[in-house]
Design brief:
Blueprint: E1 2-3, E2 7-11, H1 13-22, H2 52-65, H3 73-80, H4 88-103, E3 108-112, E4 119-126, E5 137-144, E6 147-155
Antiparallel strand pairs: 1-2, 2-3, 4-5, 5-6
Helix pairs in contact: 1-4, 2-3
Length: 164
Amino acid sequence: MFASPKSIVLKQSNYALDILQENGLLASKHMHFHMEQKLKLQPDLGKPVADPCQYQRLIGRLFYLTVTWLDLSYLVQVLSQFIQDPRQPYLNVVVCILRYIKLSPSQGIFLLSTSALYLQAYCDLDWASCPTTCRSTSGYVVFLSDSPVSWKSKKQVIVSRFST
């Protein structure tokens, strides 16, 4: 966290760099996107990983990183669905996320103290997006002025039969 009289910046740059170092990716090339577009991850896709604990540990560390990395929330939520039976394609996506983090490990949330206070909220629903259960994934983000203060991405508990 960095604070001044006019702003506060919440970031986890040391934590992000620790994750990259633990996985031998500090010297790797960075990526501009954290996953390929229209990628659909499904159970039983590819071979099981040699060390499931590595995948599970990485997902846990990425969940903690989503505290300050809003754009990772949805993808980490999707990847966490495969934590009991991790497969190589899922681990490949996790490595892509880590290489994306390498692009700017000091990314964070910027809160400006001099801006006018107003709330904005946005939500979205990816109707029946899960290929195996047909459940929808919903998400929201709440901004205080221009800074995100709350966000979440979650697979719905029930199957929606219509989108309204």
